[in-house]
Inverse folding.
């Protein structure tokens, strides 16, 4: 008789499913830049979700050109400050730092890292890549109970090496706004740490099928751990840490970059967040992580053949209460 096809439960693509090392997402690769030099990323804090009515901008969609209701995510994006410039050289073992210079007015970082005593002038050498060290300003966000900033590295892309270096020197020690980098209709990738769920069993962690009611002892367990007199293989689904993983979602469109966050805040504020008081962005769809989680954006690295949208047409954004206020 033919054997039954039984696909395995759960994807091994993200194994081992351990907790993320840091709440600040890491970005390991950057796309090529445009004609002019600019930062290729930004950061913000996830406020929550709502829904909006948008004229469908996708030409191949069955509702193209019609007004549709879509879920949107609100991310509060206060300005970021550029603390340092770092130059890299390509080696057979990857990028290697050759020199860096720090700004003088970075007192907010005293409680986070030891600052250099004396800033040196940036010696222009033969470099292959240039990046800046930027940090957030959580004190300006009332929905996040943080005081110490998060530090991250952002690549400068576009133009020649000299143009990128001059651009980095111009923004060193200054605040950068999200509207200086992105515009309405831009495509970005979102990196974040997912919502943590602690220790969970194999049913919730891997999506196993419940055993029959005639099974011995329990139903919410794996059928077998493997052959007799053998070690338990890593492919056997078992319980363990679930959630709080580093994930990247590709090709998220920025529908709007707003100036006043109070115009998007629902009645009573966002659940577990409150009122958005700084600049914000509207993203099409959902993104990883709970409210208050740090979100990093990057230029879309896989968006090669797509639809260019100058400015999505939004007809209505819901500000109804999410808690029955």
């Amino acid at each position: 008789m033919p054997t039954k096809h039984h696909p395995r439960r759960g994807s091994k693509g993200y194994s081992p499913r351990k907790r993320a090392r840091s709440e600040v997402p890491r970005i390991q690769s950057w796309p090529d830049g445009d004609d002019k030099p600019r930062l290729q990323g930004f950061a913000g804090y996830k406020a929550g979700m709502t829904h909006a009515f948008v004229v469908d901008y996708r030409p191949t969609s069955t509702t193209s050109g019609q007004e549709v209701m879509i879920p949107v995510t609100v991310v509060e994006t206060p300005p970021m400050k550029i603390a340092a410039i770092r130059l890299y050289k390509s080696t057979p073992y990857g990028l290697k730092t050759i020199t860096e210079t720090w700004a003088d007015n970075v007192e907010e970082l005293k409680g986070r890292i030891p600052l250099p005593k004396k800033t040196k002038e940036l010696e222009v050498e033969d470099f292959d890549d240039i990046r800046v060290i930027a940090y957030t300003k959580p004190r300006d966000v009332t929905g996040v109970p943080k005081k110490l900033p998060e530090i991250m590295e952002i690549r400068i892309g576009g133009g020649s090496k000299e143009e990128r270096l001059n651009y980095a020197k111009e923004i060193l020690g200054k605040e950068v706004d999200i509207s200086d980098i992105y515009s309405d209709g831009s495509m970005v990738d979102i990196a974040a740490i997912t919502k943590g769920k602690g220790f969970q069993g194999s049913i919730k962690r891997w999506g196993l099928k419940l055993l029959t009611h005639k099974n011995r002892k329990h139903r919410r367990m794996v059928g077998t751990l493997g052959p007799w007199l053998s070690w338990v293989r890593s492919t056997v689904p078992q319980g363990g840490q679930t959630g709080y993983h580093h994930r990247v979602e590709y090709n998220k469109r920025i529908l709007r970059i707003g100036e006043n966050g109070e115009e998007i805040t629902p009645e009573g504020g966002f659940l577990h967040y409150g009122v958005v008081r700084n600049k914000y962005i509207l993203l099409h769809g959902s993104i990883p992580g709970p409210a208050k989680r740090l979100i990093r954006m990057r230029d879309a690295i896989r968006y090669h053949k797509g639809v260019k949208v100058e400015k999505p047409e939004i007809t209505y954004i819901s500000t109804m209460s999410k808690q029955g206020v």
In short: The longest strand covers residues 41-55. The CA atoms of residues 135 and 226 lie 49 Å apart. The chain is about 5% helix and 30% strand.
